């Protein structure tokens, strides 16, 4: 199952509204369950470098079924996922990427946001994911 275009647009709009409320400019990417770009929005004056980061955050969250901030915690020196950011043509392991999981626990895509502090990136991504009813994935040993 893939995130639909309607869901992707709804997530982007909710994320954009949250970014506006935080007075920041963001790049917002939604990918489907295959990691393919489904929808993208670059706010006026958002950093060009954030285009790639937003897309990679979405893919990272999708590939591992975890929020990128969680992966970042596990990928610190000495951690069980140390060096993972060098795989899959480059991953982003700091906050701002969130899996999109439906009510049945099926991951249908992910959202990635970049353009501000990692705290704001995460908050904006959460707004987008929650706008379409995204939930957490079932427990997994790596997601603690």
Automatic annotation (TrEMBL):
Coiled-coil residues: none
Pfam families according to UniProt: HbpS-like
The name this protein goes by in its record: Heme-binding protein
């Amino acid at each position: 199952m893939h995130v639909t275009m309607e869901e992707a647009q709804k997530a982007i709009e909710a994320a954009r509204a949250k970014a506006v409320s935080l007075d920041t400019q963001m790049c917002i990417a939604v990918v489907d369950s295959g990691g393919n770009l489904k929808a993208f929005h670059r706010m006026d004056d958002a950093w060009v470098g954030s285009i790639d980061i937003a897309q990679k955050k979405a893919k990272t969250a999708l590939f591992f079924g975890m929020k990128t901030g969680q992966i970042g915690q596990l990928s610190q020196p000495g951690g069980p996922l140390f060096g993972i950011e060098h795989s899959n043509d480059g991953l982003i392991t700091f906050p701002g990427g969130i899996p999109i999981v439906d009510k049945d626990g099926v991951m249908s895509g992910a959202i990635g946001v970049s353009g501000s502090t990692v705290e704001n990136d995460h908050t904006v991504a959460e707004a987008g994911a929650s706008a379409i009813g995204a939930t957490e994935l079932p427990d997994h040993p790596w997601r603690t």
